[in-house]
Amino acid sequence: MRTYDFAPLYRSTVGFDRLFSMLDQAARVEPSTQWPPYDIEKVADDAYRITMAVAGFSQDEVELTQHDTTLIVTGQKKDKDGEREFLHRGIAARAFRQTFNLADHVKVTSASLENGLLAVALKREVPEALKPRRIAIGGTTQPAIGQDNAPAQVEDRAKAA
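RESULT FIELD:
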């Protein structure tokens, strides 16, 4: 397995520590994170869906938790095996914990469990204060609130016309 040295990037960048630690973590993927199988798809420009195959788990046995930029999906079967005798057990019912690192401002909007598939809908919602805004050149400085997409006008030329 290859390892990368991010030290040169640390010297010339500011504020990318989280990105480098995520790249480091991705290089150390454990084999246990391959179960249950899952898909990540881009549904729209700012919408995503994670679909996990969790056959045999009910809604009360699966838990989703979002803390900042981390989504944790855990599954724990309730002990009902004492009632049944298995001659062959091929359906995996082992506990799992899957962690997904989310980008800033990505939030879980809904989750559903149907036909053994857990579907988690995510959406990126950038606050108005962080969206691009037009800054007027010259004139007086006014506090910028929200987003201003109006065409810029130079006051001196508007008065002269």
